[in-house]
Structure formats: C-alpha cells, structure tokens
Write a structure and sequence with these properties.
Oligomer: homodimer
Shape of chain A: elongated
Strand content of chain A: 25-35%
Order of helices and strands of chain A: EEEEHEHEEHHHEEH
CATH topology of the largest domain in chain A: Nucleoside Triphosphate Pyrophosphohydrolase
CATH architecture of the largest domain in chain A: Alpha-Beta Complex
Largest sheet of chain A: 7 strands, mixed
Number of helices of chain A: 6
Number of domains of chain A: 2
Largest interface: A-B, 37 and 36 residues
Number of strands of chain A: 9
DNA sequence: ACAAAAGTGTTCGATATACACCCATGA
DNA sequence: TCATGGGTGTATATCGAACACTTTTGT
C-alpha cells in the first residue's frame, strides 16, 4: 500500500507526557559505534521522526510515526511548525549517522513538526532495538540534529495554546482530580498557581465535569474526580474578538 | 547561485495589506485558454507561491517570493502552517495548469505557508504579465488549489496573534492616528470596538508612542500622530504565565 | 492521634464595559 | 456656519490576587 519515501520531506514528532510531577518528552538514543573497534563514537538523543511516503498526508505520517513507537491510535496530534534550515542535519555526527543508516535519503530535508499528548506514562513503548525513554523537559540538554530547537518550539507552542484553550487533558487519566489538573498546568506553564484561585477558574469551565466518584485508597481525604468533555467544550466555546494589551 | 528546485516542496505566501477600510490580500489571476480556439477554459485566483531551491531555506524562499512580486525587502514574514493533503492540487483545473506551466514539477507537493504584512497599499506590484490585485478578505470566494484553506488558516493565525501581541503595525503607515489603528484592529478581528475603551488600552501600550506631530490637510480636527516602537516593545514585554478560562 | 492532601470565602485592587458631549479644522 | 472626525471621564460590574483553616481518610 505504501509507496516511495519522499527524500526531502520528513515529519518529526514531539511526544509529551505527564507523570503528575513534570512534563516529559519521549526521546530515542542514537549511539554510533566504530565499525571495527566497536568503540562508541558518539551517543546522543533524538526526537522521533521519519520521512513521509508519497501517498501519505502529513497528519497521516505523524500518526504512523507515533503509532509505530507507542502502538497508540487516535491520539492528539497537532502540527506546530516546519523546519528547513540548510544546516539542520549538517553536524558531523548527523552526517555520519545519515550516511550509515539512511544513505539513500537526501541531505536537504524539510521537516514538519508535530506534537502529541499521551494519556499517561503507562504506554508500552515499542523499543525495536533502540533505547527509548521519557525525559523531563527541564532536564534535557542538547539533542541531535536541530531537535533542541524543534523541542523548544513545541514547548512554547504547547504553553501558548494551553493558556487559551483546554488542551492537555489528554495527558491526564480519563478521571482526574483538580490537584492533578493543577499540577499539569503548573508543569506546562512553568509557574506555581494558587489552589483556591485555580479552582475558582476551573469551576467556570463547564467542560470540566464532576463525576459521582471519589479517589480510593489514598491515605488522606479522597478527592472528587472529574472528566473533560470535549463535547461540552465545542458546544459552549465562543469566539473571543477583543484583544489584550 | 541558486541551484535546483525541490520538486516536492513549495512556499505559499499570504500577503496582507490594509487600506484604512478593510483587510486585503494580494491575489494573482490564473487564466487558462484553450490552445487553438483561445477560449477561456477557466479563470480563477491564487495566492503567490513557488517551489524552493535546494540551497535556500524556508524563510529565504518566502522572502524571495514576496520580493519578486513587490520589490520589498525586510518585511514581516511569518510561517504559520504547512499543507500536505494528497488532493491539494488534484482539481482538474490545477492538473491542466500544472501540466502546461510546471510540467517538470511533481504532483505531490507539500507547501509551507507564510504570511506577510505590507506597509500600505501603495506598493508597486510587479505584474510580470499576470494580473495581480488586492481583494478584501471578506469578499473572497473560492480560490484555486487549496488556497482557500490556506488563506483561512492565515487569517485565523493573524487574528489569534493580534489578540495577544502587537503585530499589524506593519500594515499602517509609519506615522498613524489612533483611529487608523482602531480601524485596523476592527478589520482584522472582525468586530467593532469602543473608541474610548480602545484608547484607554492603547495608552497602556508604552510601545505606541505619540509624536510631536499632527495630521495635516484634513477638514476636521487634526489627529495626533503615533509610531510603533518595536524596541520599546521588546524591552518591556513580560512573559504571561497565567491562563484564561 | 497523626500525617497528608482536599476543600472552601473574603477582601481589595485592577480592569472591562457602557455611554455623550465639546473641539479644531477646511470648505 | 457647517460637516467631519478627534478627543475626553465616570460609574458599575467583573475579575484577578492574596491569603489560612477545617475536613476526611489511612496508618
């Protein structure tokens, strides 16, 4: 069914997850050994991406890439920016890697950036011989290729969007407490929020609906559980037309 | 200096302008005549775009495309979204056009969308045998290719951004009145604003600075002139970390 | 009984909204 | 002197920020 890969176009996916502590990203280890001695030449981390097929659209490619890694379907995927700098794959390490493993592909590649929000950290990552792990976004240093830049763009896009729209619930369990939701907002926005003021705001979000159910098995007062209703959100949202200073 | 065109990648530019009345877009007529009879087979409108060169980055390609059409350099250019639907160039008219004028290019093209804001409508458009005109965004019906979709994305991106950041001054003359600025905001946001409340907000924008100069030659009370200082803006802006319901 | 997180209200200042009249100029 | 758009202030309602104690559960 799938045909040729387009050698100049790829999709890179920034896969975000939340573990009730910090905002995390899935990264793949890229380790290159010398062909004879087997010494490690370099070892670094990349986002997950792939070239697109000729008969596949961009959203489809993003879906395929995340699905190949996590086995998940129907997840939130959003395109946020495209990257086409001339030198984006020109680091010597990148060149070595590309020559060895992707020799047929072109050195000039424009990559379309997508991000995905995962339901939780309990997903089973399909490792396929590569080491894939979650890393807290605050503890990531330099990535391979231009992936540090791509990640930064993704984070600021996510942050920007969360400020005005209810995204992010996909990183919480289907039933969540308000404290969990608050921690998510704090992790994404990188700021501490006041509990009472937070709850006052949330109580105006008609699409965050209380369930007839409480937390169980916690050694403190069990919290009320809530769910996010995209349905209610879509039906009640109104366009904002004013502007802010 | 420039080398090969990448056959699978193009950049499309949405060029916005403002004439103190409405928000406008530059569109190019695409008219196809039958080879013998010279009857018009179809005639419609497109945005302006072009494939990118192998040794040119995305921003550079966008700059080149707008410069070719307007002769302007150093204008605001911002990437907003990329378009890669399989059927985006599959309308029979598009196929006819591509076969005739761009035969060497591939039928599978991913296009990176940029928008540009022009200083005014007084720019000299380089016509190059094509008919290029400004059209009020509210009066545009169907465009060629997937350009209606691209335009819609561009408008909503512009609108979204104007609500939170001072962009759009590039569509005003360097010295402008508050009424002109208000009309711009109304045209972009698609809403009427209260004059006194608008001015109250603007007076908090330290980067909109009054000049020692007034309008001349108008048959009513001459208005105070203002300028936009990006410098002041960059120095005084603070990150917002809170969120809205 | 203790530890741990849940849950709750008020005050104060800032900001948004609604609204109407006089002013300076050119024709 | 008239037509045209420029320029201004106040009252009211709403929203954001700061802040501390009681409740419920498991151990």
């Amino acid at each position: 069914m799938e045909t040729n890969l387009l050698k100049n176009i790829s999709v890179d996916c920034v896969i975000f997850g939340f573990d009730m502590e910090s905002l995390n990203v899935l990264l793949v280890e890229r380790t290159m050994n010398a062909s004879q001695s087997n010494d490690t030449l370099f070892s670094d981390l990349t986002l997950t991406g792939h070239h697109i097929y000729e008969n596949e659209d961009l959203d489809g490619a993003a879906k395929r890439i995340v699905n190949d890694l996590t086995g998940l379907k129907n997840l939130v995927l959003e395109q946020f920016y495209s990257f086409g700098e001339l030198d984006r794959l020109q680091h010597p390490n990148d060149q070595l890697w590309i020559d060895q493993f992707e020799g047929a592909l072109d050195k000039r590649v424009v990559s379309i950036g997508y991000y995905s929000l995962l339901p939780s950290l309990n997903v089973n990552i399909k490792q396929k011989g590569r080491v894939v792990k979650w890393y807290p976004v605050n503890e990531i240093s330099e990535l391979a290729y231009d992936h540090t830049f791509i990640l930064e763009k993704a984070i600021s896009h996510l942050r920007y969007k969360l400020r005005y729209e209810p995204i992010g619930f996909e990183m919480l369990p289907p039933k969540f407490t308000l404290s969990q939701m608050q921690k998510l907002y704090e992790a994404v926005l990188g700021v501490e929020l006041d509990k009472r003021n937070f709850r006052k705001k949330v109580s105006q979000m008609t699409y965050v609906v209380p369930l007839n159910e409480k937390q169980k098995g916690v050694s403190h007062k069990p919290a009320q559980l809530f769910m996010f209703s995209r349905d209610v959100y879509e039906k009640t949202k109104t366009e904002r037309y004013d502007f802010f200073v």
